[in-house]
UniProtKB/TrEMBL annotation:
GO terms for biological process: mismatch repair. GO terms for molecular function: ATP binding; mismatched DNA binding. It comes from the Eukaryota. SMART domains: MUTSac. Residues 699-854 form the DNA mismatch repair proteins mutS family domain. This is DNA mismatch repair protein, putative. Gene3D superfamilies: DNA repair protein MutS, domain I, P-loop containing nucleotide triphosphate hydrolases. Pfam families: MutS_V.
């Protein structure tokens, strides 16, 4: 008795393992570790949280309880949902997520780590990072108090958003790995992400018609990287790989919300609204970081720094014209897109998705060489390909996370792992290593092939030790009664997926119960002469009885009983061959939503109940074994995903080579520099025999002239698709000897894609687009511009094309510019070739075009407009200042504020108001007057009133709803200590000292409100923001301060509230005042480079919505 008590006490202790003869036998039989989840008895985490002694731990628990958020104190996101599911799965464990080199803890688990492990949180947020060297100590400290630790991993995978989507995106998902032990290290500790170094940077996310725009803000280096024109997949890939915890996003944008719903690593969010342009938004995001960290100076805009092993995604316009964008688009000659033309028509969906990913995000030069090598070897190798389909990462993640029993998914994983091991061992080492290099670059991980092969073999060993192969399953011989055979197949299906020796006792009990059921049916429902086997022996097992019944039914085919089976009864529809019908009872039941009436026997019913009970016990034991398999596979989840992606790469490249080689396609050479040479290239990749091949040789700037419908757009799109495929290392429909240089940048632009809507004129849109193209062009770039000069009149288009051609020729890039504005500008540009499409000897060529005189030539030569455009383009391209000048929209298009509906008298009144202001406040007053002028509606009952410093409001504004704006002068206290910036910086965000600050508000008693404002003491802008703005999301502020380690910088300007001037307008109702206040703040957001906006949070979280 004392031994039993001692064993029970030991079993209740954490870390107790099965011992003794029976425990060792059980572990050896099932092939699993003897580790079992810690038995924590009745103790829960709530008990520990209620008895905390550390003051900081108690403060964090009280903070979380006040906000009713148990995991973290920011807005809901994917991470919150994943942590909630993890906590539900392991309610008595501390949930630890592995991110890079550190292990992170969130929510109330932070208080337990502070209390028992002596760790400190990151800032005041419920967020804590455990270094790898302190993890064993933390595990042991928690286990001594009966608390376990569940390790969760971020698994990176390429997967589609839904089944019908051909777009692959890079996702990070939180997946259970294992329950931590003090002595075991993490399984994938030495295999980390290539960008796992976590920093305290923040991300700004916006969206406009050109796609997504993401800025990476580094407060330590005071730099910001802006990446524009991104597709959904490339933006999500950037957000997932940077492992950034702070996101500042454009509020109210549905595209941004859809993107952020997929980000699983962010823990702090801040919305910004009212910014129409992406530049203004990123400027406001930098200003938000400055105010939170109390920084001075500005952020230097640096060029996009891409790793040499990082895929550079195509911009949205280039991807769309090839059918690779977010919305599909019009492909080259085929509306299905370029990726479908690079694969056979019967290619599986996963091949099409990966080919689209390869083309939409071309690999770096080293990976392209690997692709070129692999497809060349696959086209010549003698090794047969296996028919192994990769398993979906979603299926793997759902299986591991929920730890549910899914035999089909387990068999899919087994098939994928066997396919990977076959290729890894059968292919030449050079091929398998290069395929692995391609796969890990796609997933942005760092796994070696030998380690992957070891993990795959370990996973196969785990699966093979418990699961039976399909050919090993012992199929039960049919009895000849369809209903009974169907019952046996359904009830014993799960049990048969586990090896027989693991369920010997259960199988024996099920066979015995099935034997008794068959015997009862044979004796009660049929007249079987005798139960003997062919040797004359009496039947004593299930197989012999089954054979006996089948033989009897075959001899009397007309007397086969018509049976109906459900969960409760085996019904006999009609009495035909029953030995004693008096023992049968009439009953009704439901089978498949239908009421069925028949005859049953009490003995048969009892035996059916006994059979189902034995099957349920066997199924439970089989499911337990399968769950142990899933738990054993959990630490290798990332390896399984990579092995599956390895299969995707091999099968896709093999399918591409198998289609291209029989068609005579070739892989063009890829020199570092030189000319672009395509020989007998098939335009638009069309497979038709009657297509005229194209031969072209490009080096420098080529202007493609000709009328509409002459094939210029098809030629440009075809060359674009050919260069993208060559950059990816794929075959092309061209003859041998073709050359496609290694372009570091491929840019496509077409003014025809301008939708004609928005706040910019067609000319301004062309200027902005070409500005972006010229800024990115260099001597290793390929620039393709279609229909340059569209949406412009003849004179503007001619001058504009001349300037663009000249500027691109000066950069030394390889470019094709298609235009139909004529050739008047040929004499005004140099170092450019003018060509047209001609047909010669069955081939299309580019020949030199003649200069055709037009009536516009004389007007062009004597026009001052060319010189004006030349000066504007010089300002854009050869800028020397730190700020890019804005386009003068008053000169070329619509002005920023349309004043056609405002009377001259009202305009004069605003000018009088501005003149009354001090000179230092006039710029801010001009912006406010323009905003009030734009908001002039029926809700504003009077003109804008100017209240000078020291004056009180007039009687017309007393005790009425009013929207007001206070212009506060900024008084310098000494020499400014601005941070020195790099003189070669492209631009600066959130920069400069200002002369005025603006506060916007609404009130029903302006007199009292002004007295309160003017009584405020002198304070710096940072001090004022620290009392107002930084109270919003204090956890984000504390987190950024802790991660960046920056000390506050003293401001050199003071807010002089006593000398402030006020602009006020009377409103109809208080609701109108609140709406006008919010609209006014939204318009001032776009002018924060000229003034300090003190009302950063006012009007944002109003319950009443304001729609402009």
């Amino acid at each position: 008795m004392r031994c039993l008590l001692l064993r029970a006490l030991l079993a209740a202790r954490p870390g107790f393992q099965c011992g003794g003869r029976h425990g060792a036998f059980l572990c050896a039989k099932r092939g699993f570790s003897a580790e079992r989840p810690v038995d924590r008895g009745n103790g829960t985490l709530e008990t520990h949280l209620s008895g905390l002694a550390n003051a900081q731990a108690r403060q964090i628990v009280a903070q979380i309880a006040q906000k009713n958020q148990h995991l973290r104190t920011s807005k809901p996101a994917v991470l919150t949902e994943a942590l909630e599911l993890a906590k539900a799965e392991h309610p008595n464990c501390v949930i630890v997520t592995r991110c890079g080199e550190y292990y992170e803890v969130h929510g109330t688990d932070v208080a337990l780590c502070i209390e028992y492990c002596g760790l400190q949180p990151t800032g005041v947020t419920p967020h804590l990072e455990i270094p790898p060297d302190r993890l064993p100590h933390a595990i042991e400290a928690l286990r001594r108090r009966g608390i376990g630790m569940a390790i969760y991993d971020y698994v990176t995978a390429l997967e589609s958003e839904h089944e019908d989507d051909e777009r692959l995106v890079l996702r990070k998902s939180l997946v259970f790995s294992h329950e931590a032990q003090p002595t075991d290290g993490h399984v994938t500790h030495d295999r980390q992400s290539t960008d796992s170094n976590f920093t305290g940077s923040a991300l700004g996310v916006a969206h406009n018609r050109s796609g997504y725009s993401v800025s990476v803000i580094d407060p330590v280096k005071r730099t910001v990287e802006v990446r524009d024109r991104l597709t959904f997949a490339s933006a999500l890939s950037l957000l997932q790989t940077d492992d950034c915890r702070v996101v500042i996003f454009q509020n109210g944008n549905t595209h941004v919300k859809k993107l952020l719903s997929q980000v699983s690593t962010a823990i702090h969010y801040e919305p910004l609204q009212g910014h129409n342009s992406t530049k203004a938004f990123h400027d406001a995001a930098c200003r938000s970081i400055k105010m939170r960290l109390e920084m001075r100076g500005s952020f230097r805009v640096i060029n996009t720094a891409t790793s040499h092993m990082e895929r550079i995604p195509l911009d949205l316009e280039t991807a769309s014209v090839l059918g690779l964008g977010d919305g599909g688009g019009t492909g080259t000659g085929n509306t299905n897109g370029l990726h479908l033309q690079m694969l056979p028509g019967n290619a599986p969906v996963y091949m099409k998705r990966y080919m689209r990913f390869m083309l939409a995000q071309p690999p770096p030069a080293e990976v392209a060489e690997d692709v070129r090598y692999v497809i060349g070897k696959l086209a010549q190798m003698q090794v047969p390909l296996v028919d192994a389909r990769p398993v979906s990462p979603f299926k793997v993640r759902s299986l591991i996370s929920q730890q549910r029993v899914d035999v089909t998914t387990l068999r899919d994983i087994e098939e994928a792992l066997k396919g990977f091991t076959y290729y890894a061992k059968t292919l030449a080492p050079g091929i398998s290593k290069r395929v692995n290099a391609i796969a890990i670059v796609d997933l942005k991980l760092n796994y070696k092939l030998a380690e992957l092969l070891s993990d795959a073999e370990r996973c196969l060993q785990i699966i093979d030790s418990a699961m039976s192969f399909p050919h090993e399953i012992d199929h039960v011989e049919p009895t000849g009664m369809d209903a009974i055979d169907s019952l046996f197949r359904r009830s014993e299906s799960c049990m048969k997926s586990v090896k027989q020796h693991l369920l010997l006792r259960d199988r024996k009990q099920v066979d015995e119960a099935a034997f008794q059921l068959l015997k009862a049916i044979a004796e009660e429902y049929m007249t079987v002469p005798q139960f003997e086997d062919p040797n004359g022996n009496s039947v004593a097992n299930r197989g012999s009885l089954t054979a006996c019944i089948r033989k009897h039914l075959e001899s009397k085919a007309d007397s086969i009983p018509n049976l109906v089976v459900n969960d409760h009864f085996v019904l006999l529809n009609a009495i035909t061959d029953t030995p004693d019908h008096t023992i049968l009872q009439t009953t009704e039941t439901v089978v498949g939503n239908k009421r069925v009436r028949g005859y049953t026997s009490r003995r048969v019913t009892d035996e059916l109940r006994n059979y189902r009970n034995k099957c349920a016990i066997a199924e439970a034991n089989a499911n337990q074994t399968l769950r142990h398999i899933v738990r054993s596979l959990a630490p290798h989840t990332q390896s399984i995903v990579i092995c599956s992606h390895f299969l995707v790469v091999v099968q896709t490249l093999a399918g591409h080579a198998g289609m291209a080689v029989p068609k005579g396609w070739t892989v063009p050479s890829s020199p570092s520099t030189g000319e672009l040479l395509l020989k007998k290239f098939t335009p638009a990749f069309l497979p038709h025999d009657d297509v005229i091949p194209l031969s072209l040789k490009l080096n420098g700037t080529h202007v493609l002239l000709g009328p509409n419908n002459s094939g210029r757009s098809t030629l440009i799109a075809s060359v674009l698709g050919a260069c993208i495929c060559a950059q990816s290392g794929l075959y092309l429909p061209c003859a041998s000897g073709s050359k496609v240089p290694k372009f570091t940048n491929i840019v496509y632009n077409s003014p025809l894609r301008y939708s004609g809507t928005g706040d910019v004129s067609p000319f301004e849109y062309n200027i902005n687009a070409i500005e972006h193209v010229i800024a990115k062009a260099d001597n290793r770039s390929l620039v393709l511009i279609d229909d340059l000069g569209a949406h412009l009149d003849a004179l503007q288009a001619t001058a504009f094309v001349a300037v663009v051609v000249q500027r691109l020729a000066q950069t030394g890039c390889t470019s094709i510019i298609a235009t139909n504005v004529g050739s008047d500008f040929r004499g005004h540009v140099s170092n450019a070739h003018f060509s047209s499409i001609v047909t010669s000897n069955g081939n299309m060529l580019l020949s030199e075009a003649r200069c055709l005189a037009t009536p516009l030539k004389h007007a062009f030569e004597n026009s001052a407009f060319l010189g004006q455009i030349q000066q504007e383009m010089d300002r854009y391209v050869n800028q020397s200042s730190s700020e890019i000048p804005a386009v003068n929209s008053h000169r070329y298009g619509r002005p920023n504020i349309d004043t056609s509906a405002v009377s001259q008298k009202k305009r004069a009144c605003f000018e009088d108001l501005i003149r009354e202001m001090p000179s230092a406040l006039r710029d801010a007053a001009d912006i406010l007057c323009a905003a009030f002028e734009e908001l002039s509606t029926s809700s504003i009952r009077s003109a804008v009133v100017h209240i000078a410093a020291g004056c009180m409001p007039p009687p017309i504004l007393s005790n009425v709803p009013v929207t007001y704006a206070i212009i506060v002068p900024l008084t310098p206290t000494g020499k400014s200590h601005e941070t020195e910036l790099d003189t070669h910086a492209d631009a600066c965000f959130a920069e400069g000292e200002f002369s005025a600050a603006v506060y916007v508000g609404e009130t029903g008693n302006l007199d009292v409100r002004l007295k309160a404002h003017r009584s405020k003491p002198l304070s710096t802008v940072d001090e004022y923001m620290g009392k107002t703005y930084m109270n919003h999301e204090p956890e984000m502020t504390a987190y950024l301060q802790a991660k960046s380690g920056l000390s506050p910088e003293k401001s050199s300007q003071l807010l002089n509230w006593q000398a402030s001037h006020v602009l006020a307008a009377k409103m109809n109702t208080r609701s109108d005042a609140k709406v006008t206040e919010r609209k006014l703040i939204k318009r001032l957001y776009n002018h924060q480079n000229k003034l300090v906006l003190l009302s950063q949070r006012d009007g944002v979280y109003r319950e009443m919505s304001a729609v402009d």
